[in-house]
Predict the 3D structure of the following.
Amino acid sequence: DAGITQSPRHKVTETGTPVTLRCHQTENHRYMYWYRQDPGHGLRLIHYSYGVKDTDKGEVSDGYSVSRSKTEDFLLTLESATSSQTSVYFCAISPSYEQYFGPGTRLTVT
Amino acid sequence: GIQVEQSPPDLILQEGANSTLRCNFSDSVNNLQWFHQNPWGQLINLFYIPSGTKQNGRLSATTVATERYSLLYISSSQTTDSGVYFCAVLGSEYQLIWGAGTKLIIKP
């Protein structure tokens, strides 16, 4: 158990509303990541963080922002959700060279 | 960028059978992981194996970095082995680059 939780686990929201997903780790690791998984695309990196207040963009960052004010929490925000952001979102941590994944959040934007 | 290809895309086996899944990558890597995504969507780490061979119970993996491939062996398959198996390598900027996965179905 890598000590990663995500909340909420499921969410349905309407187009145009803001949404924030939370990733929480109990292990105090420096690196944290947000991915999305869609059929036919595998997992794609949205943003990652290499420390408190240190974040950077991944492959598919448009429409997403992140914040990391504490080591244990990494927040992903959709400022104005769109139907194309319907997906399963995974958070990951990296103690060293490996990445470990949380249980995922299934987000549906109607 | 690095390309990761997995084969076969789909595999259907009877319980008790053995299988070999392959992962090819287009450039030298120093970080390769195998994951199992179970039918409930959970991603489970199987191996971190940039080179060499590792074994964990009925599963083992071998990476030949110089020839740019990795193999995952599953012996005496059980229905709980069903799901999608991914390999992923670390690209630039800490991004894991994923193969498309092998979907494994184990029939009782």
User: Anything to note?
Assistant: The mean pLDDT of chain B is 94. DSSP finds no helices and eleven strands in chain B. The domain at 4-107 of chain B is CATH 2.60.40.10 (Immunoglobulin-like). The first strand of chain B starts at residue 4 and ends at 7.
